[in-house]
Amino acid sequence: MREILTLQIGQCGNQIGAAFWENIIQEHGIDADGKFVGHNSNQIERANVYFTEATNKRYVPRVVAVDLEPGVLNSIRESKYGRLFRPESMVSANNGAGNNWAKGFYTEGAELLDSVLDIIRHDVENCDLLSGFQLCHSIGGGTGSGMGSLMLQKIREEYPDRMVSTFTVMPSQSSEAVIEPYNSVLSIHHLIENSDMTFCLDNDALTRICLDSLKIKSPVHRDLNSLVAKVMSGVTTSLRFPGQLNADMRKLAVNMVPFPRLHFLLSGIAPLTGVQAMSYRNITVPDLCQQ
Hints:
Elements: E1 2-9, H1 10-27, H2 41-45, E2 51-53, E3 59-61, E4 63-67, H3 71-77, E5 90-92, H4 101-125, E6 129-138, H5 143-158, E7 163-170, H6 180-194, E8 197-202, H7 203-212, H8 221-235, H9 237-240, H10 249-256, E9 264-266, H11 285-290
Parallel strand pairs: 1-4, 1-6, 4-5, 6-7, 7-8, 8-9
Antiparallel strand pairs: 2-3
Helix pairs in contact: 1-5, 1-8, 4-5, 5-6, 7-8
């Protein structure tokens, strides 16, 4: 089985990662205790791509979650599916990166790096055949951009023959932090050099979709995260379920990336319908094409 190890870095990375796990746990028919409760064997046939099978046929997400402050990781532990995650796979510090790329890359993040790499090595050794790594982060803040860049660099050094794909949230133009553009520019250099595929997620576009298509009057982070989780589960469907097309990360990259440094992919999702309007619509092929 071609396993994938997911890395979640920073507040945004952990929040979209948690929404992604919530989504695919339901798709694979796994309950809050990690047991398979689905009705179709296809649901669980390739679950090992993202999950490790523990004792008593309990499925555990193969993930390493990192943040420089403990708040988001604590909220994941206390969530509905919090018991599924291995406690040692969640690593946090207490100081935070203060929206500063250099703190994540050179000081606070570098201090935490060795303990994170040890957990990654342990998870990689437990895999039969590792396909690659999937990194969730944003490049506007300090931890996701600074420590995310450092992690990419170290993973490329240690596992040069494995694929690395990233789900990268780009900052919006109307951001509160003045230094977001600087964090982004510094991170993009590392994404160009060390990533094989980067799925760009635009904060402004997510907000517009929530306002215009889903008719949510004042979108909150949870609405944006659930939209990102749908995109992520859509992109990874061919990796997680039986099929002929794009069956692993390398095949997906061969089909999508024309030139090694030109690997920034834009994802689209259709149909987009508000929850209230869902029961009043019959979705046709022209509808999907227009969206």
